[in-house]
Amino acid sequence: MSNVHELKYLQDQVRELKEQGVYRVLPVLEGANEAEVMLNGKAVINLSSNNYLGFANHPKLKKAAIEAVEKYGVGSGAVRTIIGNMDIHEQLEVELAKFKREEAVMVFQSGFNCNAGAIQAITNKGDLIISDELNHASIIDGVKLSKADKAVFKHSDMADLERVLKEKRSNYENCLIITDGVFSMDGDIAKLPEIVELAEKYNCMTYVDDAHGSGVLGESGRGTVDHFHLHGRIDFTIGTLSKAIGVIGGYVAGRKVMKEWLLHRGRPLLFSTSLPPAAVGAITEAVALLSSTTEYTDRLWHNANFFKEELGKLGFNTGSSETPITPVIIGDEAQTVAFSKRMLELGVFVSPIIFPTVPKGTGRVRCMVTAAHTEEQLLKAVSVFEAVGKEMKLI
Ligand code: PMP
User: For residue 268, which of 222, 340, 345, 380 sits 20 to 30 Å off, Cα-Cα?
Assistant: First the structure.
């Protein structure tokens, strides 16, 4: 007799999603992730990728990936701490540290992995972690894995952060304040200068997840810390290599001793195979490109400002974004999914973001403008927003 269960409880849960109109069918890309893509057999403008600089299909990165494959093969063969540590992994960390203007960098297999591994490694029982309520899911999971005590402050609310510090700080040996650099669902930037001041006043360490600031903010995309000129005042900066950098992976930048410790206690490094050579080759090329020119970040900001200005004329609720992330907040979950579906029918892909990614009732389509879009594509997208907004009586 088979021991495979029918999983009735999961069937019920999936049926509920369908009844609520939030059941997802994944769109399928037929080709590279670019400004215009082939999606389910149709050419559409892509306003949903994190490929901020257009690096995901950049000829120089592809060439570097191919060269790395030819020399190093397709897989690294082991976890970093056994025999999966190649000279290109080491070299990438040196180049990234230089780019980030930090003492050292430790690369992980993804940004998610970084948070899942680093937070638990750098905190202990008897410590306190204080986290912004809108921090990314990977931070939330990373914090759960830590043995430290946890507290949450209201989103970017410095008075609330200080309230938590006053109430709790003195009971703990070490305290770590964690924030996203750029909040991925709203596009607002963390109040890092104020956070650093409070951290210094209450003797806390700071941890900034700059997944959406890397390659976007600061000089040539050096990130949120660079944007605020806070070098040397943030203890741990996380970056992703899968968004603006266009490939895959993540890293922690900071002190040399951080790197030494993560090498011994960063569990994803110890128990999961290191980045493949193609990825490492392409990332290294991306860092070299960003180090040599501001052309890509300049174009990204030009496009983001242009799109926001044009969309702003239509009267949608676009929240409080300060970065290329541009949410169009619809509210109701099912209506958000319907909005995105209609946009796609008219040739624009903007993915719906709904609960549990954002709080219930704040469903949105999130526009991600990139350096690779043309003004013509952006204007077409705005005209489709206008048509769908009017059709659904949202504007
Ligand atoms: N942190 C933040 C703030 C993110 O937005 C993301 C990606 N959604 C991650 C971490 C995870 O990065 P990656 O995709 O490289 O795993």
Answer: 222
